[in-house]
Amino acid sequence: MDCENYKDKILLYIDNELNQSDKKEFEYHLEKDSELKKEYSELKMTIKALSDLPKAEAHSDFMISLNKKIDAYELNQEKGLSKFIENIFKVNYIPRFSLAAMSFVFVFSLFYFWDSNAINSSSLILSNSSTIVDEDSINNEVADLDSLEEYLDTNK
Amino acid sequence: MDKISLTDEQLIIAFQNGDRDAYNLLVNRYKDKLTNFIFRFTGDIDSAQDLAQDTLLKVYIKKDSYKEIAKFSTWIYTIASNLAKTELRKLKRRQTYSISDLSTDDREFVIHRKDEDSFEDIEDTHVSGSILEKSLMNLDEEFRNIIILRDIQELSYDEISKILQIPLGTVKSRINRGRFKLKDILKEKGVNLY
Fold first, then answer.
1. How far apart are CA A98 and CA A121, in angstroms?
2. How many Cβ pairs within 8 Å bridge chains A and B?
3. Do B95 and B124 share a domain, yes or no?
4. Cβ pair B132:A50 closer than 8 A
5. Which one of A73, A113, B12, B14 has the largest count of C-beta atoms within 10 Å of its C-beta?
6. What is the pTM of this model?
7. Does B111 fall in a domain?
C-alpha cells in the first residue's frame, strides 16, 4: 500500500482508534516507509505543540462580571413585569382602584352566573328525569287497563 | 452528598430545580475551558472573556432547555461555538470596514506591517507558541474550530460531531485535513517539525 493510503490512517493511529491488527500493519509500514514516517512525526509534533499551548484562563474578576450580567438580566426581567402591569393600568381617565373593583365585580358576577347556570341545568335534568319516570308509570297503567279490557272482552 | 463529586449533568439538573450553588460549581468548572476555547477561536482575549460569560449567562437563562439525553459539555460548547462564530463574523466585518476606510497610504502601511509579522525566514527546531497561534488563526474557520475542539480542548469525535452538528465521518476527515493544513502552514513559516 502506498503512502497516500496510509495518510488517512495516520489520524486513527495517532488518536488510538485503529484495531490491533491494523495498528500492527500501520507500524510495519511506518518503519519501512521513510516518507510516511516523516509525515507521521511532523503531525505528531504539530499536535503536541497544540496541546502544549499555554491555556488562556478566565480573569480573576470573571465571577463578579458574570454575576453583574445575571443581576442586570434579573432586574430587566423584573422591570419588564412591572412595566407590563403598569401598562395595564396606564389608562388615565379611569382611577386605578375603580378599574380593579370593576374587574373584581366582573369576575365575581362571572362566577355567580356560571354557578347559577350550573344549578339550573342540574335541576332541569332532575325535573326531566322525574317526568320520564311519571310518563313511564302512566304508560304502564294504560297498558294494564288495555289488557284488563281485553280480558273482560274475551270472557264475556 | 458532596456537590463537588456530582457530574455536570447532575449539577445542571440540581440548578433546574433551583439550586444556585450547583450553577456556581458549573461556572467554576467551565470558565477557564470556555475562555481558552473562545480565545483560540477568535484570537482576542477580551472578547473571549466576554463571550465565556455570555455562554454561562445563556446557561443561566436557558437552563430549562437542557435535556438529560445530551452531555452537558456538548450543550455548553455548542452555545460557546455559536457565540464565537457570530463574534468572529463581527470582528471580520469591523476589520474589513476599517481597512477599506483607510487612504491608499494607510493601506500600504497595513500591508507592510503584515509582512513584518510573517515568519518565512525563521528556521526553528521547536514550535514557538506565537508562531503556532498565528498559524492556527491562518486556518480556515471550519478547520480551526475542529482542531481546537479536538487537539486543545481534547473532546471526543462523537462530542465534536454533536457540537458542530456534522456526521462523524466528516469530523474525522476534517480533523485529518486540518492537521495536515496546519502542519503545512508551520512548515511554510520555516518551522522544522521533523
1. 34
2. 90
3. no
4. yes
5. B12
6. 0.68
7. no
